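I trust your eye. Have a critical look at both lines of this record:
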Amino acid sequence: MVAAPYCRPLPPSLMAIESINPYTGQRLRRFPTFSWAKTERILAQAHGAAASWRTTSFAERATVLRRAAELLREREDELAHLMATEMGKPLRDGRAEAQKCAACCDYYATHAEGFLADEVVKTDAGRSFISHAPLGVVLAVMPWNFPLWQVVRFAAPALMAGNVGLLKHAANVPQCALALEQIFHDAGLPPAAFRTLLIETEPVEKLIADDRVRAVTLTGSERAGIAVGTAAGRAIKKTVLELGGSDPFIVLASADLPLAAKTAAQARMINAGQSCIAAKRFIVEKSVQPEFVRLLKGHLETLRYGDPLADTTDYGPLARPDLADELSRQVADSVAQGARVALAGGQPRPGTAQFAPVILTNVKKGQRAYAEEFFGPVALVLTARDAAHAVQLANDSPFGLGAAVWTREAAQGEAMARELDCGAVFVNGMVKSMPELPFGGVKKSGYGRELSYLGIREFVNQKSIWIAKAAQPAPTKTE
């Protein structure tokens, strides 16, 4: 929910949303922001569309979603190019994101009807059950780091449930937002049933307060979550908040160390480290920590930085120079507080979005590295005395999104997974999101769930229906 930092404040009549290539600094497109009158007109149209879209059958909705999946696959190169130029994602990662979005559309097209089928409940009634009815207009406030996936994982289940969507996307990815809107329209969705709002942050609270918006979903920072959650609370609106994470990656002495280190490098560098579920805190048993750090460093040093449009690029720039500047401050402050540099990367100069991988060891309580989310390619290494201490360190965080545990002892891995205070745990694997499993966190990582059958039930009215037993006819008198 932060506007792109490149333009100076403008009068309201001249406000614009800009698309800027973080690798070159070139301004690609400039879009005038919508006035409130235009925004309200789109809301009114969405409200009208909600009344008709809810009456469509699951088969009709599935036809649209399956066509959207086809278009996502057909246009994956175009979409990957947009992501590369707007927020720095390498082309192969952008293609993979488009494919993942297509799979999500197909998943809900196939399973939504079953997920929302009436659930019969035995009571004293002749018949009683729980039905699942759409709410109406769902407002989505989305971030830039996965500009298609973050949107589709809300939109696919919401649309299949019979809701309609309004998207307020991050200000630095307007072209991605409009491209996704076009895909849904080209797939046959009524245009008013999914619209992108090119607005700044200020109108969001006004939208949330409007009775025609029935629910809000946000993926973003803790600060954005507080703002949206507060506004929704005042308006008594259902919300789902998926916020930050500082995911622990626990490596025990019994782990397959080479595989753990290789996966750790991948898990830290996904999307140049700009992922809420990227592994960030590497909690390693003391006896294997030196070897783990050596292996991790070796993997990170082989990664190639470059133009996101080049197929040989492993990682590109951070999405904005100000994000790299803040990450540099976090690293510098942590080192001043006692952390040690095991791999010196970072910004080549202030004001650039380029940021090479960094490893910090000796991370302890009292340092920024211990308590804060580092949203970029910085690996934070903490020392654990044993498995119990590793769990203690992992849970000693304000966040609780995902976690990974590495051990050759499967029973131990499962037992530790049950103790970790987070929304998902992967044992001997990299944390990831997928349509089949619910996604979301606890503590300051937010609340509610996306994906799976839980995700599609977030924005429906779970209505109890009780029907009395049929009255028995009165006995007739006999002579």
